[in-house]
Batch of 4 targets.
Target 1
Amino acid sequence: MEEAASAAAGAGGTTTIPTSDAPIPVSSDASTSPGDGAASTDPSATATAAATVGDDEQDSKEVVLRRYFLLEWEIVSTILRRIVDAGGVAEPADVQRIRSIMDKYQEEGQLLEPYLESIVSPLMLLVRSKTTELYSGTDELLDIIKPLCIIIYTLVTVCGYKSIIKFFPHQVSDLEFAVALLEKCHTMSSVTALRQESTGEMETKCVVLLWLYILVLIPFDISSVDTSIAISDHMDGSEVVPLVTRILDICKDYLCSSGPMRRMSGLLLARLLTRPDMLKVFSSFMEWAQKILLAVTDDFVDQFRSIGIVEALASIFKIGNRRGLSDAAPGTWNDCSVVMKTNIAARSSLLRKFLVKLAQRVALISLPPRSPSWRYQSVSSSLVANFSASTNGSGCSSCSAQQVNIDQTNTSSLEEDMDVPETVEEIIDLLLTGLRDSDTIVRWSAAKGVGRITACLTPALSEEVLTSILQLFSPGEGDGSWHGGCLALAELARRGLLLPSSFPDVIPVIIKALHYDVRRGPHSIGSHVRDAAAYVCWAFGRAYTNFDMKAVLQQLAPHLLTVACYDREVNCRRAASAAFQENVGRQGTFPHGIDIVNAADYFALASRSNSYMNVAVSVAQYKEYLYPFAEELLCNKITHWERSLRELSAQALSMLVQYDMKYFAGYALEKIFPCTLSSDLCTRHGATLASGEIALKLYQLGFTFTTDMQKALSGIVPAIEKARLYRGKGGEIMRSAVSRFIACISMAGISLNEKTKKSLLETLNENLRHPNSQIQCASVDALKHFIPTHLVSSGEKIANDIISKYMALLDDPNVAARRGAALALGILPYKFLALKWMPVISKLCSSCTIEVMKLPVGISNFQY
């Protein structure tokens, strides 16, 4: 009613936005002829209006908007002026041009909001004018209305229907015209041919339904508007108004649609049936809905109709009066519980989502409205207030003194006798089950329902709900339960329903969720759980004061930054960074918080390699985060299922050595050495790479290796060969890792005995013959460092033997062996090549000769 009561009386004139954000006025008089002219749409009017703005903030906003939209607005305003002057769309290309411009703003619809009135009002007044003529004219006018509705519906998809319907005409006399237009659209035959451009039928129906969504809010009895009643001059009080019947019949048909008309008709039904003068119509609709839902079958038409009905009922229970809906709540819940058990609900995640949404709104109707006095309330949500308090040095003390905290009050005084209906208990069980659903949209809706219902309960009952939510994090639960539990905890925290006294039970669970990663065959699952856990931490930062969050942040910060720097998924890295940034900003001073936020920003974390090699290294300079980072890499990342991530983690681990060499030379290497012989391929591959990279970094930093450490490092490769870990699955991966390990210990100058030298050289020579080019390149790189370090000083005999062996391989029938030998000869040191440089060059030149393929006997070159 408020929307209709605030409507402007006039239908014509010039439409502008009465704020400083007003763009360019466009004539909205649909009846103006082309010769009459239209209001000026000169873009300079915007600059003139902006110059008079006194508020710097508004002026800055206008400048930004014009910067991004000014050029296109000139095009759009020209097309709009041409449409208004012509009384319709003369050129079909104009519609496509506007659509292509508007579609670019799908992600930034707010940039269009200052221009919406200038676009929507003149077009809707044209639609209204043509609808009035259509009421007494021919159906050809529909061809004029359709292109206009395509433009309006494009704006609906970009900015949302709530932003658009504010500029629809809403005179009382428009109601019958709009219903007549909807009937015309409903009865016309649909074009089923596939075509790139829209025919405008669907868009017209949606726009008219939204128009009626506003018109049915008129503050008069609808029977007083229906002219058919005045013509018949009589109507029984028990009869339904004919105009309402027409709307209901069409909306019921659209409820079984698979398109956007289903949602629009549900919104229209919600506004219509919740009017005070629609009690009989509401009862009739509820009976019809119950009949359809209880008779649902596996037919796909019934599936769409069920979704439409449940969605409409959810909208009704959202905006309806509590007193009017309380009688219908039990029956609606019974129907909801029956449909939830059907095969259609099991197959349709969308239907389950709306059933969960409807169930929670039934519960809210069944519970008495209340604002829980036990809810956590922070002193101030202002960043300025938080920073000023922390600057004065009295932030924590003032918070502790003023904070209304459940831990410091007598909970017995907050306990109230509350009779919870059995229906509500069943609905809460349904929502807790919904948190385990296989689809995210169902879990998300269930989490919001848990938060809304908990706000209406007593502290004791809310504790029971929290206990049930924490059970979702049991070891036997799947990833869906963990995700749903995190969403529910976030909703409770946002609403102040998760009290600080519950932190000891909640925080350990959130820390586990931040690292949730379960291996499933050749991949893992859990990114959505980690993302939701970061959302919980973000909600903590917004909901609680620094006094209550100080100890919690000390636990969460290392884990948040670990996820922000080392998570495999970019959305998880950014979510954790956003949560950390929110806590730094909301909670006042935090050790190194601003420096870390500047380093781990949204764009820096976009690249995984940059996050591992640069951002993490920058954050790890602070001792609070160095050891959690190292532990994450040692325990999780170098054993990850993805090969590229293991290789990157080994390099990232070596970058942290500079901050504590003793830790990595002692604890880290001792932990890694046994893992090089693990039966798990990922573990031994990552451990082998990490051992070599750490050893090399220690040498570069000037660390002196003890005899025992050198013996342990030199014995890794022989132990791997003895265990025959080159064979079977993963042998190729281990060959590359071993080659890199040999290169690292060679550069690090690890001493080797003669037997080990011979063994490592045989390993590299064997890898040279491998057909995999990556293994060959890794082996060549290792020889480049191994030979100068360990073999140059062994004498000419070793040098001659190595050169002779590689020259002999150039005649090998195996192409891979010849390629490997040529690569190896290219990296031999000067002292080796100086002995036989002429034979080596001659042999390499002869190996470059193109070979003639020998064909089988009896086949000529031409035949081949």
Note: Residues 56-86 form the longest helix (31 residues).
Target 2
Amino acid sequence: MATPDQKSPNVLLQNLCCRILGRSEADVAQQFQFAVRVIGSNFAPTVERDEFLVAEKIKKELIRQRREADAALFSELHRKLHSQGVLKNKWSILYLLLNLSEDPRKQTGKVSSYAALFAQALPRDAHSTPYYYARPQTLPLSYQDRSAQSAQSAGSMGSSGVSSLSMLTLNGPGPTPHSLLPGQPHQAPGVGDGLRQQLGSRLAWTLSANQPSSQASTSKGIPNSASRNTTRPRRDGDTGGTSEVTEAALVRDILYVFQGIDGKIKMSNTENCYKVEGKANLSKSLRDTAVRLAELGWLHNKIRKYTDHRSLDRSFGLVGQSFCAALHQELKEYYRLLSVLHSQLQLEDDQGVNLGFESSLTLRRLLVWTYDPKIRLKTLAALVDHCQGRKGGALASAVHAYTKTGDPYMRSLVRHILSLVSHPVLNFLYRWIYDGELEDTYHEFFVASDPTVKTDRLWHDKYTLRTSMIPSFITMDQSRKVLLIGKSINFLHQVCHDQTPTTKMIAVTKSAESPQDAADLFTDLENAFQGKIDAAYFETSKYLLDVLNKKYSLLDHMQAMRRYLLLGQGDFIRHLMDLLKPELVRPATTLYQHNLTGILETAVRATNAQFDSPEILRRLDVRLLEVSPGDTGWDVFSLDYHVDGPIATVFTRECMSHYLRVFNFLWRAKRMEYILTDIRKGHMCNAKLLRALPEFSGVLHQCHILASEMVHFIHQMQYYITFEVLECSWDELWNKVQRAQDLDHIIAAHEVFLDTIISRCLLDADSRGQWGVTAAEEDEENKRIREFQESIPKMCSQLRILTHFYQGIVQQFLVSLTTSSDESLRFLSFRLDFNEHYKAREPRLRVSLGSRGRRGSHT
């Protein structure tokens, strides 16, 4: 026969733990302590204590499982059990059986085995924005029967209101709760009284945890004054005129004010606040407390007004609707708190609990219990004010700004809302960088698309950054990379006609499929998020550059521009000029493009240009410029290079116009060298033929000197342009292209290359008008030439005039070079005036050069 000790609750409970876990008594000590705390705590199911209701649920569950015979058997056994008085807690036993019969796979929040139950710590409060976790206190409620919400409502996911109440033990001004100390007897009802009920799975912990210790120990000594022992009246009886309003009635009114319903406390539209009716006879302390509590209703109204207005506005976009959904979720938890408070108030009325009783609702207790919900609603109201008039990425930035606070409770709340608000933004982003798709109906994303732009301008004009919509948690460098990723994918599909799936270009990682994924991403913006952006950027850009270089020969076309339009292929240019001379000396109106094209093909076949790719030679062509009166073929001839498809993105129309200007400049300089070479050959022949005529010796000598100056000038200019401008700039361009990470880098480097050679060849707008001759000067020169031809005796004087005029132009040019900000142009002036010939003739050169000490340092 078992000893009394073996039947004690402690021994039986310890044996149960050993049976469930399959361990010895020493190994289950921790689980045994936990079980003792559970039994001695205020945990109770949040359902009504109705034995027949639980029995009906068990029968329905059996029928749902198609076990009609078991359901009939259970009904008969329950009838027999009910007819006998052996068991006192039939409801508790049935409820236990119902819970044990539930399939653990249906409720992921429940433990899957009894061993897992004891492996957990005490249950923690469920927060949607978890920061603090408060354990339920074990102070007993002072009465047993409490109705609450359904188990489904109490077990649903929460984010505010009720869940925040349990933080009072850590964060709020509430009184010190009682603890269940070892060896301290816990005043719990007997087994026959059943398990204790609570107001809700979370509120009951707070209600029991926050009873003032002094009040709990002296609850029997509370004075039973008439005002505090007054039974709470019903709401329809609150029309007392100028009679004294009891605190019980005021508490009931306050609960309605929390929902925005006026009673004794009404909303003042003029002052935008709640005020107690003037005819209500209240003490100053009660009136002030009621006004303080009414602030919760004012905050609720503010948030509710915003959500009601914006929820119906479809133009608010997905981000805005997510913000409204987050606010609705917070208000839902707030309403859950109010429901629990109403349930307690109704229960007190039904059971006749006096106001002065230990656990009854009072204004002071409401102040304590609504402290954290008020802070939460204040944060939400501040967000509503700050987000007025914002949408899309700007709205996400406004919410993100509130995460930069030192209050961890407020920061956790805002981060939760931010995870919901930013979820659509991150969905936009991942769909753009992984698929190149942009479905932004309400213009919320920071990448904008212009559908009117044609395919040839896709890279330059179709997609742009909408800077006002860039969220503050995404940097400008990240947003630029995001733009380039999607733009590269669309460029490949639409311009390059490359239909390679994105998954083969990018190792697609998990996107933000849920707000929780977005929240996890925000915890590591600098690593996880940055890593995803960088990986997609580098892989997409590398694939695009490989397609352009291998399939469309971008670098080969770039080198072809250098060889033909910038006269880099010397043998071809020289031979082409020799072949074109008979044609180009004719008037421009008598030229035919097909004849010039034939000459071009002949020059290609006769030089090293024939070894170039047929694709490159096919694009090389002849172009005739607009003809002006008196123009010869030299004035209108130009080479052209046709570009189309993806390479036209780099060689745009503006770039090709720059190439044309540089080609004309180089072509005319090459022609002048060609002419001066012929003149010098003629001078050498004439010097031998006219040696017997001494009267021509002075004239021939002067002509020889002038021709030598011109040859020296044109040689120095060509050396400067060829080596210091073209070669150096080309080398910089080629190095940048080799290191380029995306197509934008190549385009930028190419534009810098063209701007540099345009500027250093004096073809830009700043260099116009500083050198050269005007039309009037050209007419005067023609007049002098005619006079020279008409009169040989005047040849010497006319030649001196021509020499003086030329030297004046060169001196003016040298003055412009010495005052230039470009160091290369200043060094060009040194080579042109290497023996200081022009310096001796032009005072401005002596001042300009002397003041800088350029010559002095070398003498």
Note: The mean pLDDT is 77.
Target 3
Amino acid sequence: MATTEATELFFSVTKLFQSKDIALRQMVYLVIKELSSIAEDVIMVTSSLMKDMQPKSDVIYRANAIRALCKITDASMLPSVERFLKAAVVDKTPSISSAAIVSSYHLFPAGKDVIKRWANEVHEAINSKPASLVGSASSYLTSFSTSSSSYNTPPSSSNINQYHALGLLYLIRQHDRMAVTKLIQQLAGSSRGGFGSSSGILRNTFAYCLLIRFAAKILDEDPNSRQPMYDLLEGWLRHKSDIVNFEAAKAICNIKDVTSKELYPAINVLQLFLSSPRFTLRFAAIRTLNKLAMTHPTAVQPCNLDMENLITDQNRSVATFAITTLLKTGNEASVDRLMKQITGFMSEISDEFKAVMLGFLSGVLRDEGGYEFKRAVVEAIFDLVKFIPESKEAALAHLCEFIEDCEFTKLSVRVLHLLGVEGPKTATPTKYIRYIYNRVILENSIVRAAAVSALAKFGVSVEDPEVKKSIKVLLTRCLDDNDDEVRDRATLYLRLLDEDENAEKYLKDDSTYSLAALERQLVQYVSSSESAEKPFDLSAIPKITKSQAEAENLRPRSFDLATQTIGVSSPAVSGIIPATISTASRDATPTPGIDQQQLYTQQLEKIPEIAAFGTLFKSSVKPVELTESETEYVVSCVKHVFNEHIVFQFNINNTLNDQLLENVSVVMQPESDDIGLEEEFVIPASKLAYDQPGSVYVAFKRTNLDECPLGSFSNTLKFVVKDCDPTSGEPDEEGYEDEYLVEDVELVTGDYVLPTYISDFQGAWDKLGEDGQVVETFALTASKSLKAACTTLIELLGMSAVENTGTPQSSSVHTLLLSGIFFGGVEVLAKSRMTFSPSTGVTMELSVRSSSQEISRTVISAVV
């Protein structure tokens, strides 16, 4: 808002001071506070605010008037309002007292000399006795009732003004250590009998927490006060409030040079909190013990049993702190158990926990242990390398020391492979070559062969020609090895080092074909009589990274992927489908976690009408939700793109236990008649019982094969409803027709792009050239970060982020690289250069390249 506009609004609002409406008057104070830093001449409203501060004014207005006045008050005006503020500080109404104290706290930097004179009044506010009926801290909140101008406040029980007053009093006396010490002893001494009893001066738990922090600061700064302050902290461990107990225990744990004897009572309190039903207490206690275990692990050991019970805590932060603390305090048997659990949640914990682990894990590697134990430790270090780039070099150094004396061949091979992949990417890659070559000299043939492969990767990946020359010398020595595998590898890599193109292809290429997609396409190829007339098209197989392939192999495979017999036509193609198989396949929903594309293909092939459409190009990565999960009918949609057809699969779940749906179909109406699609058929779901999902298929044929139809469809479910008994499920004989409108479904450009992976983006980018390039600039004002912009762009284009560009490393500048295959097998690449500013959002220059400028323009139009 401009200054002129703010000023006009400010003075217009001040006219409402005459209003009798309580809610409207409350809003006036809020607007004044917000506009005070923008508008001009705001000082003109001072007299009105000072009038509302008077004791004769309504209680509901006084606190807000004080806050608003202090917002527009500067150091020069402070003496003129000093009398009113001092009176408000000791007011019997807590809301007024708190407003004055908090406002004084914020004015302190500008008017120290004036506010320091109020120490007696602030001290009186701390010592004030609670009245039976006084205004509460919430009394300034409106009742939004205009029936009467009077406002009765409920009695206060929070005593929050003591917390505010104590903070201001410390601010006034913070440079007088003796005065602060006297204040602590005075306020603590009043409740020495019971620490928190109602007879003490302090009745607010937050005020006690503040007092504990002051005591801990004095204890840290003044050695002579150590024992008296410790006695106070130890006494507060028995306070009736959990928050005070925890604050005192935390303060004791943070004492410099604290002894085990001094820690004992604090640890007892924290140990009790570990079994608390409140997860906030469990989290606070385990985090404090985790920090303490770094310097005093033996003192924390009595809590090991309670911490082991927290490993399975449903709160992941609590479980993470528990396991990292036990790694410091546990014995050999417990650490062995813990190591097997680390890799299961490594990707879910934050970087600070992972950094704590690295030092511990490196020490464990040097200890005695069996294969499973050492394998678990190595796996954990591998995860640290993967998830924390900052710890990579330190982790690799520990692994190098480990293989110097490793008795397990499998682990040595895995470490050597990791060194070959990650070593060349470090700032000083040459320091790892010595460790790798030592394996060639000292190890068995399997390890020697792995070491030769790792050396070759250094020769290809490191830019320094001297390194490449040294690697050639080392590989030449391996030609005399007595094992033929080692000699063969050395010969191959020496040849590849002289051929840059082949070296890039065989040594640096991190991509591989999706085996599930390759299997599916091969089965379809050999099962179809028409495919024998043309060669198998390998370019249609999407590529993924090797890490993605490994992750896919580790997933549970609960679905039989090999359902077709090579050389025999499938039942779907021949049209012979048993009724039971057909019904089950049409109602099935693919199991997540395997290859969705393959599952959808196998599902669709069992439907003769759809199997006739040929090879499936792409299915939606995830279903589009068309209803909320709480509605009576939960509907989602999956889009399947074939060569000449588009199939919409509607997955429907009936959540009403007193209804049976029969003959369920979907009526799809495109937003435009010339969308380029005509409906071919609808395959309805015969019936949908309670909580038994089913599917409806709607197939469209493309009228123009040279264009990719884009547009939106409105969708309406049509069905016959039969009421049924919720307990027995028996439906009525008669039903009635009904319909249900769901959200629209859109065909977007991303539906025609298959994400794929390439290892050498720049090489593929240069190969496509600028002939088919389209460049546009966009302003993504809705994106609140570069990460959000990357996620949005990947979803819109339907492409795959390559070279680890999917997650920005900087918060202000990033380059996103994308790869995909457009409908028809056309390779498409995109490069997006982004900048982020909190005021303007994300500004992006998007470049798209393909063999056809028209295709590039189609892809880039997805962002418009």
Note: The longest strand covers residues 711-723.
Target 4
Amino acid sequence: MYENSGNTTDQEKFLDQSIRVVKAESFEMKRCLMKRCLDKGKTMDALKHALQMLNEMRTAELSPKFYYRLYMDSMHELQCLEVNLVQEYAQEPAKLGNLYECVQYASAIIPRLYLLVTIGGVFIKCGLGSRKEILKDLVEMCRGVQHPLRGLFLRNYLMQCTRSVLPDFPETEEMLVAHNDNLSKGTPKLKPRDGTVDDTIDFVLINFAEMNKLWVRMQHQGPSKEKEKREKDRMELRILVGTNLVRLAQLEALTEEMYVKDVLPSILEQIVSCRDPISQEYLMECVIQVFADDFHLATLTEFLNACGQLQQDVNIKILLIALVDRLALYTTSYNEGQPAPTKMQLFEIFSEQATTLIKNRPDMPLDDIVALHVSLVSLAVKCYPDRQDYANMTFQGLRQVIEEKGVTDIEAFGKVGRELTKLLNIPIDEYKNVLRLSQLPEYIKVMNYFDYRGQCNIASYMIQNMLEEETVFRNQDDVDSAFSLISSLLKDQEKQSSDSHETEEFADEQNLVARLLHLIRADDVDSQFLLLNSARKTLGEGGRHRLRYTLPPIIFELYRLVLQFSDMKDEDDKWDAKIRKMFVCAMGTIGALVSTAELAELPMKLYLNGAITADRVPFEDNHTVVYEFVSKALSILEDDVVDSRDRVRCLHLTVGTLLKTTHLPEENWQPLANQTVLAAAKMFKKPDQVRSLVTVAALYWHGQTLETNGEKMKNGKKVVDILRKAAKIARECLEPLVQQQLFIQLLSAYTYYYEDNCSEVNVDHIEELIARTQDNAVQLDVSAEADSLEKQLGEAIRRLQLAKLDVAAAQATTIRSEPELPQPPS
């Protein structure tokens, strides 16, 4: 194709040499043109310099990339020549004929044809001769250059020069007359000899056919080892051939009838007959992109038939997908109430064509087959939202193909997996309601061909869509449909690995399921309870690793339902029984977390939360439910919570719960409080025992029972006993720093209750504790922690002194406020 295939440096060198010649000759050409008004012979000199300049276009040293740069520089100079010639001969066009004849005597064909094309354009612009004949003459003369690279650029220059003079007029004399009658005043009327749009179509189609032949010929010139390089060069030049189709599509007078009868048949004939995969694939794609959607709809069958005649190496999948996507976009964006023409036949036509294509190409990769179905599903759900059978038909066809190929486990992140993900996501995005997928029975069957990770990804995408669209489950059918679609996230699967529950994806997916459960919203309380109970049974089969994520939302929904139902006591005769049944269901669900999931802290928190909820609802024997929840929490604390830090944290939660409850009778409250004190004293580490006892002491001061009628218990004797027990344990600690911390904490606790008027707190006992703490501070080694404890001790002592002053002031105020007795009479 070109003789020198050296490196870029060599190409740059040859290009620089040619451009220097072009600039030098163009300079002389322009100088001659500027002097033509003084000496008419200078025009011929300008043409001679133009011929010398165009001789550089004969080079065989440049690759297509660098030849294009030379071509652009030369064309710029030829445009200047054309402008000057039009200005010179516009007034005396008769003299232009001699110039046209003189140019034909140039020896080299490439410079001669470039000048002939230029002067031919000047002829047409000056109104000389028949435009139709000139165009026909020029396009036929260009056959003289059969070198692929030079011929392509020559014919491209022909298109560029004649772009503005191609006749784009009505095709008959009658239509021409009507066109001239509608012209505005001052606009020149068209002449019959100027040609019609038919002449332009013939001109462009001839040029297109010849350029395509030259382009294809490039593939077969040169050694076979340079095949890839030739293909790369061809791809760089493809736009030159496609420009012809763009020009045809830009014709304003081109009608649908002309496109159907003349334009498309000629284009398809040339594409099919060239038998070149690169040319066929590119040109078919050009046809799809450049011509109007109405034209495609009118010639859909012919175009698809031509696709079946293309070479086996042509990726027809890309062509069909592009056509389907474009027509789908066109039909969906059509004016409301005005369905696009032949819309009802689109799906049937493309579905049949896709089936035929897959049948005729047994070696077609599975990822291409799935990608083809992606476009079909997109067409079905976008253009026919009410025809779910179309989408289901597409999924069924794909399932049959997968079965025939014997594929059973598609990798989620492979080529096929990525296309299958796109396919399955389309209905989710378009329907805006995942529950509609239950009406596509083939959808789940196709999804099951995924491996475990792929199924989980699709199920997660469904849940995200339901959360975004707030897809509410109103009845049992909705819940069953949703659970069947996301079953891969609810139960262990055969394709699931043994360690899948240890991954971050597993936790994220189960959290999505947990959020989904809050969308269960029935129209009444009874139905809501039945739905939650049904969901609990289904989720209970998910395995121990899932229960920790999926059961807590059910429990909280039950608590929410209890609070919602608590205001309907007068509306339901079985109100107490139903409330109790809800708590029984919640308790059984929490029990599954203990027995099946083998959890401790989470179910304990849920028990305590249930106790607070039950205490807020004044149903019959609610104190027994509160007692049962708290007792089960304490049982877990004693038997299942092992880590010392966890035990301390859980004990604090239990204390907080008992302080929140206000409707427990004394007989129920005391056992729970005593058990809490016992749990605090049984902490593994002595410092934890001390801190826990200090916390538990608050129960007997701030706690409330049914008998206290909303007043705090303030059992100072019990508080002091617990604090003394804590002080005794603190004295047994052998670490000086830890012992000092415990003493300071006890001192703060004593001070707090002393400030709160706890009469059982003895000031002498506090002074004794201060003395022991100060003696202990002397024995501490010098350190930052010791300094910090010393500051804390000073602050505690200062606070105690202030408390003494406040108590003394309060007592004095009490004495002064007592009424004086009347004096006896004298």
Note: The longest helix spans residues 784-817.
